[in-house]
Amino acid sequence: MLNIPVIRWGKPYESLETEDVVHFRTGDPIARVSQANGGLVARDLRHAKRARNILREFTCQDLMDKVAKAADLFENETLPLGDGQQTADDFVYHQSATTGLPQHMCRRNMEKNCFVLRNMPEILDALTRGLDPEILSRGHGIEDRGVVVSYQAQTSMLGAVLPSNSPGVHTLWLPVVPLQMGLMLKPGSQEPWTCYRVASAFSQAGIPPEVIGLYPGGHDVGGAILTGAKRAMIFGGQKTIDQYAGNPGVQVHGPGFSKIIIGEDMVDRWEEFLDVMVESVFINGGRSCINASSIFAPRHTREIAEAIAAKIGPANVLPPEDPDSALAAFTVPGVGPAVLSMIEQDVKEEGVTDMTAGYGDRLVEMERCSYLRPVVLHCDSPERAVATKEYMFPFVSVVECPQEKMIDKIGYTLVGTAITEDDDWIDDLGQATNIDRLNIGPIPTNRLNWLQPHEGNLIDFLFRSRAYQSHRQMAATV
Amino acid sequence: MSVTNVELDTIIQQAKEKLDKHTVEIVQWHFNEETGCPFWLNKKAELDFDPLTDVHCYEDLRKFPLFEDDWLRGGPVERWRPKAYADRPTYVFETGGTTGIPKSRVVVDDFRIDYEVFSDTLPDEYFPRNSNWLMLGPSGPRRLRLAVEHLCQFRGGICFCIDLDPRWVVKLIKKGWMEHLEEYKKHCIDQAVTVLTSGHDIKCLFATPKLLDSLCLALEDRGTSLKEVGVTGIFSGGTEFTPQWTRYAVEELLGGPPEESGIYMTPTYGNTLMGLACSKPVSAADKYKIAYYAPQPRAVTEVVQFDNPNELVGFGETGRVKLTTLTKEFFIPGFLERDEGEREPPFETYPWDGVSGVRPFHELQSSTTVGVY
């Protein structure tokens, strides 16, 4: 069993308090993880400035080269982890064993992280809309068009309270180090693996370990990071979103409520888009905020729901190492039955039909975990309570709704795929502020272009555009 | 020099005999029509035994049903006042109460006696006699504020205090008003820093773990430290007083163990119902293990089986903390605390059972807000 310490700006710290991270099916311990406390975090936050100072000794380009090298190490090499070593295959096994995600999905998330690390220049170019990274480093500079610009860093490091159940989210904080800011991360209790392996790969690639802190622990650790870091991100449910709403220092990533909406002009051709819909609902175990949880269409909704149910309804639980395994486990006791009971309540509303009812029991209970097989509901109106709900497994409501009401009725939508060629409606959709990422055409909601900002631009969060005048620059430009 | 096993057995037996004698005396007092309180005199009729004739030793207290904390909620509080003390000035102290009716305990002198007993456990080197104290903990209807002040006065000092309303703190957390929580904490700490840096020659302090942490950070922000402002003794308590927290405090807040930093911190475990359990001295060599021992015979803590509160667990085994309070002012037989821990063996200083690793009882954990101030 691995012993994983707290990492305090690069230095391992063995806590007297530990938590075992166990296999979701067998309960066998896989790692013993040291637990930090809030006070430890608050004290270490005082040295956050040092992380930026250290990183500013490198150019952004140097750091981008190093993270690209780190991608190779992360993806292929045996790396130090706690008091042991971890191969790439170990990583996949460990992550799957503690999160309940099938191994091939863990590997895909690994590839996604590596893609971001390898393509950092393009990603930063996209996030900054073409700004020379050295302007961010220096805080000011002259753009190609001869205009003086200034972007002031608002923090020396980014704090992040990471989730246990979605290994794909790590791409959001990976660009921080190349932006010359440190990282103070609270790993998810069941998924310490990604951030420890990234930190290890960064270190092996030549990034000073002193710029990263890893603080596994309880709620007080998360609280201390969110209170003390000038910029922090947290992943959580609606309650968390509400709690931090309006706090400019905290970026909250919660449920996505991602959707596919089909226009009047295309709905009669719905069968052509069935694969897009199925992929959007089903991929990655339905766990991501970018999985579609609702499909809105003006007609044919019952046929659409039936067709999706026929494709995904029969899916059953397979061992996590099986390459065909499509479902992820609920590793917290009682969660699977509780979610199913909420859905059963939803189905009692008139106008809601369970289209997967004929495909057998949805709940699969095991000794230490449970699974939910896919659920497809049909709603005869957007007024049904379940029409815009999201659950953490392959779940979708197919909702009948007139096109002219859709934008209002879909509510907040992280990824909205609009299948239409109606230019007027496309224009309306472009103006809709309740849609974060907009896809026009049959693009699965999960296929993100990483050259587009996700849930708020990281650059806008970490830097502030401001005026900067220098008589030296003025003399140069007169 | 440590005692032999035979000698230890002897003092354990002596302590047990003292507890048995004290138990009989207290039960006789509380069930006597002249001296007992209305609550127990009325309760007597519901019992299937006679406490006056059937309680001969501590173990006989198992004849009583488990004490229900709801019995302490609501009025009239006079039902808890022993008739013998009817004419004495009486305090009422409360515990809980963020929502609903708090538990109440009436007190005449117990808080003074408990803290005088506790005073004997404090090393004069670090808690110097005649030195002034700062009380950085909950005030209002809690007994702690008056108790710490009395401890300080008993040792010849003057106690400075701040206001701290823990019920408001719990509400802030439940509402998710973390910004307000931080400001309130800052408001308390600012007052403490002002007192400590105003020339009052304060050498000792009571602080909850969270406030001690914040106080040290605030002093550091001002370019000073507990040591520099002259604090040498800290009395603290709470279930979040874990070995790891203690290690963190010793290593990073206080500047090392007492012999290096000159600051001694003693963890305690207690509440309004019990009094104060002291800790065996805590050291790095013992991995900062904290083992509490109740002030027997006035109070007894036992570690009992989760499914059978009349059976002790073995030494080193985990169980629920059961509390019994045996004073002339207050009789609580077999109250199951909201905490669990491991049973610790007697030793020469405290020749009776102790409890270590105290933490919220796992079945109640999700509904309990601990360590909030």
Overall description:
The complex is a heterodimer of chains A (478) and B (373). Chain A is of the alpha/beta class and 478 residues long. Chain A has 17 helices and 24 strands. Chain A has a seven-stranded mixed beta sheet, with helices on both faces. Chain A has a five-stranded parallel beta sheet with strand order 12-11-10-13-14, with helices on both faces. Chain A is globular and about 65 Å long. The termini of chain A are far apart. The model of chain A has no long low-confidence stretch (mean pLDDT 93). Chain B has 373 residues and is of the alpha/beta class. Chain B has a single domain (5-367), classed as 3-Layer(aba) Sandwich (Rossmann fold). Helix content of chain B is 32%, strand content 23%. The longest helix of chain B has 26 residues, at 5-30. The model of chain B is unreliable at 367-372 (pLDDT under 50). Chain A binds chain B through residues 15-17, 35, 37-40, 42-43, 220, 223, 226-227, 239, 242-243, 247, and chain B through 176, 178-179, 182, 213, 217, 242-245, 247-249, 252-253, 287-288, 371.
